[in-house]
């Protein structure tokens, strides 16, 4: 049964009331629901569910890595609450991660550091270091949180024998609108085939558009794919809006498919056919090199917009960036990144015939 401090089953509210750490006297952190599901709270915003019997999938659902990307937070919060209230019976092991609670409280993407640039060790914290002993002055909360999230994902996957199916879906929203309201970023697989089953599953989420990465990255999804061999994706679900102001009907297929995935309910999928999807690969990344960097198109321009050949895209001191190829499209433009970080990607359509399994 639920402990008294979680009697409302509102795990998100509890997380936001304790954004940086759990109360030191909080008990119990492990409890069992009447249906036999074991619940473990590992940290603020981190809850692990293990049903009495479970299948071959170990599933991580992550949200709130960027604090103002709220539709995914609402999706995950509703799933967790339904599990705690036993309205949803799990058939798989599931780990929920609410990534950056202080930023969620502030309604900001990040407080200091963009967490999705500091995975795969980019946070600079060695595995043998005591994260609790690190101060804000030395390393930001967000970098420390990245190191913790890596530890929790490792703990989750390594708690059961190897060889099981591992998945991580890191749910986000975009800063601006998109010509494809929902799309997935598929991290670089180092020559491994793209998964037809995952394309079909995400199509059931009403996600027809995929950005296929061609280089390593420091994102959460790349970390899970490369370090743990997981099927991992960054799922971009609409545009960032304040908490409680999302039209959740637009994401009903995402929520319903994730609910079915973790509960063992039937999911209607179609065999993978490339022409059913919009597939893109990164042609080039444009990084911010100086504080003079500026974008040279309207703030209303949406992700995946194609501009005429030669169009001026951005200026960075004495450097000009222009459209270099027909069909090149803009994605993730953001001039307000730190120096050296990606300010925009240019993508182009791609075929993956012969590269799937």
Would you kindly provide a written description of the structure presented here, covering whatever features stand out?
The protein is an alpha/beta fold and 357 residues long. It folds into two domains: 4-272, Zn peptidases (Aminopeptidase), CATH 3.40.630.10; 284-347, OB fold (Dihydrolipoamide Acetyltransferase, E2P). The protein is 21% helix and 25% strand. The chain contains seven helices and 16 strands. A 13-stranded mixed β-sheet has the order 1-2-3-5-4-6-9-7-8-10-16-15-12, sandwiched between helices. Helix 5 (196-204) links the parallel strand 7 and strand 8 (209-212). Helix 4 (141-158) packs parallel to helix 6. It is globular. The termini are far apart. The mean pLDDT is 95. The active site is at 236. It catalyses: N-succinyl-L-glutamate + H2O = L-glutamate + succinate. Pfam families: AstE_AspA_cat, AstE_AspA_hybrid. This is Succinylglutamate desuccinylase.
* Portion in helices: 10-25%
Rounded mean pLDDT is 95
**Outline:** globular
Q: Treating each run of at least 4 consecutive H or I residues as one helix, how many helices? A: 7
CATH fold assignment of the largest domain: Aminopeptidase
Overall number of structural domains? 2
End-to-end C-alpha gap: 43 Å
Q: What structural class do the secondary elements suggest?
A: alpha/beta
Q: What's the total number of strands?
A: 16
* Rg over CA atoms: 20 Å
Strand content: 15-25%
CATH architecture of the largest domain: 3-Layer(aba) Sandwich
Unreliable stretches covering 5 or more consecutive residues:
none
Sheet with most strands: strand arrangement:
1-2-3-5-4-6-9-7-8-10-16-15-12
């Amino acid at each position: 049964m639920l402990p008294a401090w979680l009697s409302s089953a509102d795990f998100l509210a509890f997380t936001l009331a304790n954004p940086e750490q759990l109360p030191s006297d909080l008990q119990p952190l492990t409890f069992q629901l009447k249906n036999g599901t074991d619940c473990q709270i590992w940290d603020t915003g981190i809850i692990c569910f293990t049903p009495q019997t479970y299948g071959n999938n170990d599933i991580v659902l992550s949200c709130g890595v960027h604090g103002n990307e709220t539709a995914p937070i609402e999706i995950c919060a509703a799933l967790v609450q339904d599990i705690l209230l036993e309205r949803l019976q799990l058939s798989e092991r599931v780990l929920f991660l609410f990534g950056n609670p202080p930023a969620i409280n502030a309604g900001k993407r990040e407080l200091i550091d963009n967490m999705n640039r500091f995975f795969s060790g980019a946070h600079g914290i060695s595995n043998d270091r005591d994260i609790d002993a690190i101060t804000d002055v030395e390393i930001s909360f967000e970098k420390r949180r990245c190191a913790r999230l890596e530890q929790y994902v490792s703990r989750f996957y390594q708690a059961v024998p190897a060889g099981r199916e591992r998945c991580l879906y890191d749910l986000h929203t975009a800063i601006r609108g998109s010509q494809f309201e929902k799309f997935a970023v598929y991290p670089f697989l180092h020559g491994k085939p793209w998964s037809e089953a995952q394309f079909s599953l995400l199509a059931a989420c009403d996600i027809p558009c995929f950005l296929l990465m061609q280089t390593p990255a420091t994102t959460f999804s790349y970390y899970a794919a490369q370090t743990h061999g997981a099927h991992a994706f960054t799922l971009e679900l609409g545009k960032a809006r304040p908490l409680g102001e999302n039209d959740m009907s637009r994401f009903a297929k995402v929520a319903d498919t994730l609910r079915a995935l973790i509960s063992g309910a039937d999911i209607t999928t179609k065999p993978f056919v490339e022409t059913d999807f919009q597939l893109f690969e990164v042609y080039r990344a444009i990084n911010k090199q100086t504080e003079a960097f500026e974008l040279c198109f309207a703030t209303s321009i949406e992700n995946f917009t194609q501009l005429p050949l030669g169009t001026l895209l951005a200026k960075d001191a004495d450097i000009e960036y222009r459209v270099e190829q027909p069909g090149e499209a803009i994605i993730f433009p953001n001039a307000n990144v730190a120096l050296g970080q990606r300010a925009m990607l240019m993508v182009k359509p791609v075929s993956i015939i012969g590269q799937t399994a």
